[in-house]
Structure to design on (182 residues):
């Protein structure tokens, strides 16, 4: 089982991301994101067990987000991670808050315990749209990503700690309303 710390959107602003999930699902072998039964999110770190436990991860997330408010994040670009399988995602505009939270988490927990793609200098903030793009649909998926010409703003209002698979929230905190400096 793995432990992840995230921020997620539990409000209507996430609807646009979920609509993209449905569009991307048509390119997948099965609808990966709807199957998670977990709202749109950005992951700061993933730890495999044995190693970092839920309590340690959650304390790092609470410390990193202490005093912070709900975070509006704007997405203007769709990208992909080369597979197999190909993974589509939307890229947030640069955010000092996201970078700071990630740095604080990495300072609290030795990044050597984190999955390599979530370590400092490598971490790519992203909101996943689909993780199971069928090989036969890779060219169409890349064309879809390249044609993306929208501005989506999502208000991330919860920080949490989950274990997976399957995704199970073990701790969460709603962020107060307001605007953090992004």
């Amino acid at each position: 089982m793995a432990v992840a710390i995230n921020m997620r959107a539990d409000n209507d602003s996430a609807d646009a991301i979920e609509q993209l999930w449905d569009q991307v699902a048509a390119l997948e072998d099965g609808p990966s994101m709807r199957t998670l039964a977990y709202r749109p999110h950005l992951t700061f770190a993933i730890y495999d067990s044995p190693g970092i436990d839920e309590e340690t991860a959650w304390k790092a997330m609470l410390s990193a987000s202490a005093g912070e408010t709900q975070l509006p994040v704007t997405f203007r670009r769709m990208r992909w991670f080369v597979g197999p399988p190909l993974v589509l995602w939307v890229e947030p505009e640069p955010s000092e808050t996201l970078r700071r939270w990630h740095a604080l988490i990495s300072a609290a927990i030795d990044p050597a315990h984190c999955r390599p793609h979530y370590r400092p200098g490598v971490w790519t903030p992203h909101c996943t749209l689909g993780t199971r793009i069928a090989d036969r649909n890779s060219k169409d998926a890349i064309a879809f990503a390249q044609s993306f010409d929208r501005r989506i703003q999502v208000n991330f209002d919860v920080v949490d700690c989950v274990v997976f698979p399957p995704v199970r929230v073990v701790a969460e905190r709603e962020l107060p309303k307001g605007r953090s400096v992004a």
Q: What stands out?
A: The two ends are 32 Å apart (CA to CA).
